[in-house]
Structure formats: structure tokens, C-alpha cells
């Protein structure tokens, strides 16, 4: 009896499923072509399987949705709204949309990137971008880079004059009232049965005098004024013992044209480099010569130039600065912290002037382009036994 009732219920379920498919077919009308014989059989089979799986001996039943069905709604970004719906049965779908009923000539429904003529500013970490809207596209007007200045870190200069030498003198340059430390070279020896003394007083700091401050971008120079540059174009270095940087012509007290022509080739450059040259030094002083540098650098024929170096800035502290010369490197960053260079009154060619180079492990006399910028040391005329 129970088996007979189960067959009756199963037959009724099949009839109901078949009727549902027929009603759905006529409801869709001509607009839907998505239902097919295969889809019908699939839906029927699915319904039967669900019915069988949900039936029990006690005759309980549960309802189910045909697998694979889905629906969605889409709204436009422009004024008004539109919607679309879709139904899917066994991988086949049919859809309808109100948007199809709207005329394609309606621009109010079109997506817009931006409003014509609108201005906008984009702020970024390293730049600011200015834009405007043209033909539905953002166009860049200009980009302003943002330079984030890092705090400057300067070298410690407390040990510039640190040494065993304590006999510093002082000199005030009356042109700008700058006070310099001075040191003295003194050597007494026997020669040809007599006593000979070599002696002179020299500034223990690089000269730092000028009437005009220029920088690395300067293209026009004034021959009537003393001009100087500072390392990194930063006045701090000039004012903290590194001193001023001069071209060769400026150091020798000559017009700028003498950086590109020989002293014998232009009347404006006439100078006797074999004698003392006051140049940029104060009255009563002259630019330190090759001979004077060598007397400090060599002792009994040995190169002791490392003993002229200051204890500040150099990557290594060598020697005890026994003469108090306290020579600093050209700068505090590589490669400028590797050596020091000073102009001397000497001309190798029309475009190259004489230079003394010092470092931890060498001393040499060389040359460099006259338009380069280097330091100057000044020697007192009075008491200089090497003056001609």
C-alpha cells in the first residue's frame, strides 16, 4: 500500500513540473528563445531528482529552486537610472533592460571622466601636478617639483688647531677686520763655517677676504673687486677656517682675462712671478711660494707634509701638526676631503697656473686650470729670509 501511494505522489509531481514548464514557455512569449528541449528535459530531471531526494517514507516533502538560476541589477552613473535583469537556466540566459528603451542620442546617460573646463590639483610627496579637463580627458598643465631640504650637517671644527704647537701669533686684516692665527717657520743651521737662519711668518689659516661673494653659477666678473667663492657655495665654510676660494688670476691680483692667456701675452697680465706677488693678500704680505711650502713639507730631505695637516675633517688624523700650519682638505665630503690645493705664483702655460697639492701621503707641485677655484696662504714680507 505504501509503495502504491509513493508511485501516485511521484506521478503527480512529474505532472506538476511539466505543467510549470509549459506555463513558463507561454509567459515568455516571442522575446525569449532561451528555453529548449534540452533545457526542458534538464529542468524536469532536476525537479524529479530534487523531489526524490526530498521525499521520505513518512511522506514529508521540501521545496527547491531550479539549480543555475541567478539575477542581477545594474544602475547607471548618470542622471536617472536604468536596470536590467537576467535569468539563467542550465547555462542559457535571457535578459531585458530599460536602457534599451532610451534613445542612444541622450548624452545625459554617457559616462564622463571629468567636467569640461574643470581644474584640479594633485598633491604628491615630491611634486604638485596641475590639470584641467579637456575633451573628457584630464590634461597636465604643469608639474612643480617639491625639494625637501635636509638639515645641514657641518663638520666639527674644534680640533682645527689641535696639536703640540702652542706658539700661535695673530694678525688682523684691516680690510675687513678679520683676525687670523699665524705661525712661524724657523731653522738655524751651519753653512760654510757660519750660521744661517731661515725664517718667515705665515697665516695658519686660509685667506678669507673678498669684496664680492660669487657662486658656481656666476658668469660675469668684476675686475675692480676682489671676488671669492665658498665650498658648496655655502658661506659657513668660508667663515669656519676653510677660507675663500679664488681663481688663479684673482689670487695673483690680475684681471679675469689672465685665466685664459699667458702673463706675457697681454699687457693687462704683466707680472714678475719670480718675485713676491702680493696678489689678493693684505698689504705687507704675499702669496706663499713653492720654496716656502717646501721648507715646511720637507725635513732633512724627508717628505713630512702629513705633519702640516689639521686634526679636523681629514678622514685620518696623522702627525701632531708640530708647525701649526693646520691645513684643512678642500671640503668635508669625498673626494674633496682627500686633499688640499693652494695657488702659487707660477705659470705652466697660458691656461694653467701653479698649484701645491697636499694629502696624507703626498706633497707635490703641479698645475691646474686657472679658472678653477683654490685656496691661498699668505706670508709676511717682514723677516722673510727667502724674499728676492
Structural summary, described in words:
This protein is α+β, with helices and mostly antiparallel strands and 388 residues long. Among the domains are: 110-145, no CATH class; 169-380, no CATH class. 17% of the residues lie in helices and 26% in strands. Strands 3-4-5 form a 3-stranded antiparallel β-sheet, with no helix packed on it. A 3-stranded antiparallel β-sheet has the order 6-7-8. Strands 14-15-16 form a 3-stranded antiparallel β-sheet, with helices on one face. It is elongated. The N and C termini lie far apart (144 Å). Mean pLDDT is 79; it is low at 21-108.
Q: What is the beta-strand fraction?
A: 25-35%
Average pLDDT number: 79
Strand order of the largest sheet: 3-4-5
Number of strands: 17
**Secondary-structure element pattern, one letter each:** HHEEEEEEEEEEHHEHEEEEEE
Spatial gap, N to C terminus:
144 Å
Low-confidence stretches: 21-108
Task: List the quaternary state of the chains.
Answer: single chain
The assigned structural class equals alpha+beta
Number of helices: 5
Considering DSSP H and I runs of 4 or more, what fraction of the residues is helical? Answer: 10-25%
Overall 3D form: elongated
Q: What radius of gyration results from the CA coordinates?
A: 47 Å
Sheet having the most strands? 3 strands, antiparallel
Summarize the structure.
This protein is α+β, with helices and mostly antiparallel strands and 388 residues long. It has helices at 2-28, 37-54, 235-242, 248-251, 290-297, and strands at residues 84-89, 92-97, 119-123, 127-134, 137-145, 169-173, 178-191, 194-203, 212-213, 227-228, 285-287, 298-299, 302-303, 340-347, 352-358, 363-369, 378-380.
